[in-house]
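User: Before I run my own analysis I want an independent prediction to cross-check against. Here's the chain; please return only the structure tokens and, at the end, one sentence I can use as a sanity check.
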Amino acid sequence: MRSIRVHLPDGTTHVGSVVDLRDADCDIDADDLSRSVRFGLPVERGYPRVISPPPSPVSPFVAHLAREISFDRRGALATLARSRGHVVPEERTLERVESELADVTPPEPGDLADARRRAAAAGAETERLQERAAMIRGRVEAVREAGGDIDAAEAELAETMTRLSEVATERVAARQRLEMLEARARAARDGREERMRLEDRAANLERAIRRSLAAAVYDDFADAVAALPDSFDADAGDAPGEYEGPPLAAALAVTRVAPLRAPVVADADVLDPFCGLRSFVRYLDAPVVLC
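Assistant: Structure tokens:
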């Protein structure tokens, strides 16, 4: 294992493949150390700096080993499998589904309610003017039969018919726009449904890929679980879904089998089941910063 260098805020530097900071003269936060390992330099003044090889893909899952660790076991195992070059057939299917998903862009439906109001208003106005035109025609006929002056009535009828023609045109336009927006709304609904179908398909494929990748390295993981001290009371079972035990035990097992370049940061009480630092480091076979 390559040596690492840890520069503390008090000016001291610790070097080695295993750096034990339990007796350091300054307060050290394990999360600060972990962030320095994962993100590298530069580091703000007053924070520890860890100079080491860059982290491997698995490192973020096991960067800080603590009793109460929250550990994505399947994600870590899948990432480990990928780092070893494993691929699964579902990945090509997922690529195709993601490509189809990127092409699904539901159209904006537009203001359908406003279009319906406009179409209804235009229809109502058309009917009102048609009724008015019929009434005026009746008046014109009545005046003509009585031998009276029909000029004023005919002028009113002409004005009404002109307005009726305009409103009828508006009604056709409003109806056409409503039909267009209704078609767009149907297309948007169909697009959303298609997008949801593809998203569900992609999510199912991602879960299947994680399961397959995790299964590809599960024998190594199971061997690492079996090598843990008995006090962890962990059992890997025969498949990724059969693991029983604390998250820390799974994280330690992944650390043991993963090709880590950067160190892991471990809380001091993680050593307790191993009865000492030497046994702990021998189990992990990885660079460690202990605090």
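Sanity check: The mean pLDDT is 88.
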